[in-house]
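Reproducibility note. Readers wishing to regenerate the assembly model reported in the main text can use the exact inputs given here. Chain order matters: entities are listed in the order in which they were concatenated for prediction.
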Amino acid sequence: MNDRRRTDSPSKRSPDKGKAKAAAKPGLAARQAAARLFGAVIDKQTSLDGLLDPVTGSPIYRDLSDEDRGLVRAILTTSLRFLPRIEFLLNSLMKTPLPEGARALQHLLVTASAQILYLDVPDHSAVDLAVEQAQADPRNRRFAALVNAVLRRLSREKDSLLSQVEGRSTFPTWFDARLGEAYGPELARQIGESILSPAAIDLTVKDQAEDWAQRLDGRLLPTGSIRLRNVSGAITELPGYAEGAWWVQDAAAALPARLFGADLKGQRIVDLCAAPGGKTAQLILAGADVTALDQSANRLKRLQGNLDRLGLNAETRLTNMEQFTTETLFDAALLDAPCSSTGTIRRHPDVLWTKSPDEIDKLALVQERLLRHALTLVRPGGIVVFSNCSLDPREGENMVARLVEEGLAERVPLSPSDWPGLEDAVTPLGDMRTTPAMIAPEDGYAGGLDGFYAARLRRPL
Ligand SMILES: C[S@@+](CC[C@H](N)C(=O)[O-])C[C@H]1O[C@@H](n2cnc3c(N)ncnc32)[C@H](O)[C@@H]1O
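Running the prediction on these inputs yields the following structure tokens for the assembly.
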């Protein structure tokens, strides 16, 4: 339920206005901001969404004009999408590696290279501004000539350099290894390619999906979601938004709630990690009586706002689900657990640079704990759907296998024939596994799905 429009396209550049007073030259403030924010992602593992939040984000970003914000967003997402390729090329152009601690210089070079290689920014302007940027920073001043030489060469030899890195992995080495191990080299390669372009915007509609697809010039996907073409303007201005006819939800994110079945009338379902509420809304619409929990007050407020707009009701509870107990056990529970989010790399290309393998292993343990608790909240025979947006089986398949083996949960397998157009997403054991390589592009609509895992489990009788 992300109502804000995100774009990777650089806005037309214009002189920095108003707040960017420090800028000596038009466009310089945006480049300086891009390099510093890139450093915050790469060196301090700060999330890009957090940094670029228009209200609570970094002042470095918030102080920019709207147009510069668009440019900075484009530079950052592009730098992150193509980082290993950019670094490879930069290394190949330098006679000696940069000094170990020269992080600000590295960030400057990467963000300038992203503009030259992949963005619609005139090369000479990207080079000139990068040199000026180096001169304005005492840490980088002595490298200004190097910046000039390397970027000019990058610009001159762009075509041949780009062909050198075509097909080269865009992931950190550790993630490449994990993907290869989980999916095999070919699928891992396809998932790698998927990160190079931004994800499409998908909508879940309350009803009349075909009509809405027509009205919004969207493509009705086999998942039931509507995929939009390039949206120009705010998503909130589209027909149906104000009246609460639909909400933004990746097509894969709309699948886990469907594992309970289409008609949930009379069922009491607890949505344990509910905010911002996309899946809660689906469960309510299917007829369930929903209790929605989240431990974040801000996010629960967003969930309530979203449900209000959609005209839907749920009982909401601000609580850590691990401390939540109930006298009357629920018929079913959805646990859409906090995870590494590696399935959302097309939308969040910072994820792989802000998460480490150790963190993923720790998150898998948290999810296992949450799932064990979720199973105690439903009646014997009750269903628990576990889901997350990770591509790593440690957080999904492997963890669920342990609980099934222990006898704490029984799998209620999905049948591929119940998922027309998504048969490949049903695993041999009957779980749902989507990847960004699924759903081919068609008629100008982008392809791809977020990487999601979902298992339908039953509490044994
Ligand atoms: C992946 S998001 C859920 C997305 C949501 N199901 C949807 O479809 O819109 C995970 C949510 O779990 C919440 N969360 C994480 N740990 C929790 C816990 N122990 N108890 C309750 N909520 C938790 C987070 O605040 C976050 O909102």
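We highlight two features of this model. The longest strand covers residues 378-388. The longest helix spans residues 173-194.
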